[in-house]
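WARN retry 2 of 3 for item q-0093 after timeout on previous attempt; input resubmitted unchanged.
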Amino acid sequence: MSDDTKGLLLRAVLAAPDDDAPRLVFADWLDEVGETERAEFIRIQVEMEGRPRPAFGRNRKLYDALRRRERELYGEPGGVCRRCAWHAPIPHGGWAWRLRRGFVEVLTCTAADWLSHADAILVQQPIREVRLTTWPHGLNEDELERRWPGVKLTLPSPEITATFGPAAQGNLITVHEAS
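OK item q-0093 returned
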C-alpha cells in the first residue's frame, strides 16, 4: 500500500468532508490495493447517508440488505470492533465514535484524551464533532475554538459536573458550531 497515495486521498477527504466524491475515490483505491471490505463499507454508507428506510420507497429490501451488509462488514453497534484499522488512530478504551460515509465524524471522549490525541486523529479522520465528557482543565472555550476551528466541541456543563460529578456527562453544552 502506497502511503503517499493513501495520504493524498485522505487529505482530499479531509479537505472536502461534505463531498462524497473523495470518499468514493478512496474506496476505489482501497479496492485496487485489496482492502475490498472497507471499500464496500464506504460505498454502502455513502449510499445510505441521509436516506432512512422509507426514502428507499418500493425498494426497502435494498435498504435492509445494505444495512445488514454494513453490520456484517463492521460489526454491530456497541459490539466488538472487528475493523479497528478503519478508525485509526483512535485509541481503544474510553472512546466512542460514529462512522458516517465510511469515516469517523463524531467522537466522545475525555478532555485529556482529546487533548493528547486530537492532532493525530484529525489528519486521518474528518472529525466534525467531539463530545467531551470532562471539562478541559487549563483551557477556556476561546482557546478550544481557536485550536480546532472546524470541529463542533461539546463540553459538560461546569455547574452540572461540579454538582453531580463526571457521571452527569450526558448534560452537555455546545462551545461552538463548526463553520
